[in-house]
Amino acid sequence: MQQAQYITALIDYIISSPTAFHAVASATRLLKQNGFTRLNEEKIWDRLPSGKYFVTRNDSSLIGFSLGGDNGPTSLQMIGAHTDSPCLKIKPNPVQENHNYLQLGVEVYGGALLGPWFDRELSLAGRVSWCDSEGALQSALVDFKRPIGIIPSLAIHLDREANEKRKINKQTDLVPIIGLNDDIQDGFQKILQKQVCTQYPDLDDPDITDHELFFYDANPPALTGLANEFITSGRLDNLLSCFAAVQALLVADPAENCLIILNDHEEVGSVSSCGAQGPFLRDILERLLPEVEKRQTALRSSLLISADNAHAVHPNFADKHDPRHLPQMNHGPVIKLNANQRYATNGRTAGRFRMLCRRAGVPVQEFVMRNDMACGSTIGPLTAAETGVDTVDVGIASLAMHSIRETAACTDCWYLYRVLQTFFNPGQQQ
Ligand code: CO
Regarding beta strands 397-399 and 406-409, do their DSSP bridges make them parallel or antiparallel, or are they unpaired? Predict the structure, then answer.
């Protein structure tokens, strides 16, 4: 694959992945198309022969792996990333009618940068559930795929100090408008039911009882910059890494043992049945390697590359970075380090990643947070603590992290893929 082709496929992946549920569904589609078999956690697996497999949990986290032999892996090359992104989630009883506007109440999911959510055409996607005629619980993913909402700013004439002092009240200021009461006859459940029936014509008017729906920017990703250097889009954190992980797994050497884990709930602390501080990966590893000592031996011989975006230096705010650690765009993946274990990288795992970059012919840089600012974290330290596997935290340098529209650089996306692909093909000559 060439860089241009990769970026086009990446943009397709982001468009088809407005929520963590869809990020897993899109990854599932790619894996199935390439001969991966779906496993079910509710069934006994027995001993898996060599081959390509994947399993999902809550429809929002995924583990995919390729086994090189029939007797369980003696070591694993692993890549981790997260499927969720900060956004606005619809409340259980969201409908509000105010001054003839129809609005939907939302909760803020994760550490969203809220300013950029105003004056955006918003669409809605997620998962809905209902009880079918046999009394069984059913669910389906929905995506309106077109602008249906907007959170208009307050005009500057009504708030003269907006540029100096505007604050955002998450309860009262952020309620998207989805229409005018004059025009809308259907209740919200009916609107959801119609959307489900449009997407799934075989379904017979399901009576939707529950929903997990998220607003997202209806504007598709764009290539930006005089030379199309940049990719601008929502959810670059962390779909850039999810896509690179999936693509690397598709071309993994079939003689090797390679695994990717894409976790939901990173942006809200990772404590859940499918989050990085939950048992998902451990459960799957126990199935692959039921014998305790064999599993421990394999894990101590393994490496996890935890991939999540890093902060590129911002030209207008360069003093927010340590002056000796200024990740630049298109200068390669960033190794993230933190003395207080907010990142799992140590000198040896950093060295292993550096060697991989050299083999892949990809530049590499480092990031450490300023001492007078708090450092973020990611799934790396949590996964390392849950499994005991040696881990390196890395990521693509990006701007405006957690905005509804983030910026990264195209060649960096390609570089990350090349390193991960090299990781899953240790015997390949570059
Ligand atoms: Co992230």
Answer: antiparallel
Ligand 1 mean position, distance from CA 156 (Å): 33
How far, in Å, from the CA of 308 to the mean position of ligand 1? 5
Please indicate, yes or no, whether residues 148 and 253 belong to a single structural domain of this protein: no
CA of 221 to the centre of ligand 1 (A): 18
Residues in the chain: 430
Report if residue 377 sits inside a domain.
yes
Tens digits of residue pLDDT in 29-86: 999 999 999 999 999 998 899 999 999 999 999 999 999 998 889 999 999 999 999 9
Do 240 and 384 share a structural domain?
yes
Q: Quick: pLDDT tens for 128-183.
A: 999 999 999 999 999 999 999 999 999 999 999 999 999 999 999 999 999 998 88
* Claim to verify: residue 204 and residue 289 sit in the same structural domain: no
Q: Evaluate whether 90 touches 178 at the Cβ level (below 8 Å).
A: no
Q: End-to-end alpha-carbon separation of the chain, Å?
A: 14
Residue 286 lies in a domain: yes
Amino acid of residue 230: F
Find the domain containing 284 and state its range: 3-85+234-423
d(CA 124, CA 193): 14
- Between the CA of 69 and the centroid of ligand 1 the distance, in Å, is 33
Show Cβ contacts of residue 81 under 8 Å, excluding neighbours closer than 6 positions: 238, 241, 242, 244, 245, 260, 261, 262, 263, 306, 307, 308, 379
What is the CA(286)–ligand 1 centre distance, in A? 27
Name the nearest CA neighbour of 303 among 246, 243, 387, 377.
387
Q: How far is the CA of 78 from the centre of ligand 1 (A)?
A: 18
- Give the Å distance between the CA of 307 and the centre of ligand 1: 9
User: Ligand 1: distance of its center to the CA of 271 in Å?
Assistant: 15
Q: How many CB atoms lie within 10 A of CB 404?
A: 25
